[in-house]
Write a structure and sequence with these properties.
five-stranded mixed β-sheet; Butyryl-CoA Dehydrogenase, subunit A, domain 3; 328 residues; alpha+beta; Butyryl-Coa Dehydrogenase, subunit A, domain 1
Length: 328
Amino acid sequence: MNLGLRLDADREAVREAVATFCRERWDDERRRAAGLDRALWKELAELGALAVATPEGDGGPLELVAVFEALGHAAFPGPLLETVIAGQLLPAAERATVAGGGCWVAVGSPPLLAFAPEAELFLALEGGEAWLGRPTGPMEPVVSLAGDPWGRVALTRERSLGDARPALVLGRVASAAYLAAAGRRLVEEASRHARTRKQFGRALGEFQAVAHPLADASIRLSAAEMLARVAGRALAEEPEAAPALAAAARLSARDAALQAAYTAHQVFGAVGITLEGPVFHVSSRIRQLASWPLDDAFARECLLAGGGASEWGPAGGLERRGPGGGTS
């Protein structure tokens, strides 16, 4: 397997195209006013970002990494990982609707599902298998850390979609790329603040207690970013190694991004935790995604086992976590 850690020119162009879209269409004013709307989601789909790594879309796992690096740096919301996983499991007609931005999909282990109140399609995961489900009974809305619409709902199985484990591996890679890039955004914002904010007549960045944690966070994020790319390349070139690498990438990015969030808030102080502040919308999305039920317990088992064809996914279903990180 080629372990080149840089994105080539074509994939850099993919990342820059999505990053430009985010800069132009997902600005702070729009974020604070109403959050994500369906029209903006449709625009992202028209860019081709939601169809990457599907049979109908352009590109493969490394192109998906490039897309999610751009989305993570922008802290772009929405059922992104759900769409990636559904794109590997749904039949062609339904997959095209999801990838085209025509509907939202909720994916997970019921009853607690992210984006359930806004979803039109529901995929239940259990024992490594995916099922298309139909809601039965009332939907109980759940407040989530990042403001995403979560809900508790019972699902009736309608038909099997087969083995979900390869799709979950791809989801872990996308999650790792997003988290590492979001953490990088926080370090950049905090570093700019530390260069300009003065205390005792000196810039904050001149104090070792500020500079060293930022440097450590940057190093951890660089490693996580590279590992996500290696895992993406493994999916394309050496699939048997991909489960362990995707698990390692997910865990590395999760821990690095959470550490970056802690460090950034330490640098900003009280202003960092305000809703209108420069970083809270990023750090809350990191914490939300860090608690997304991609089965971290299995990921650790897979990592310790070293990969292999028998380790594509969990034997007993996904660990269910609440929108704030606790188990449901």
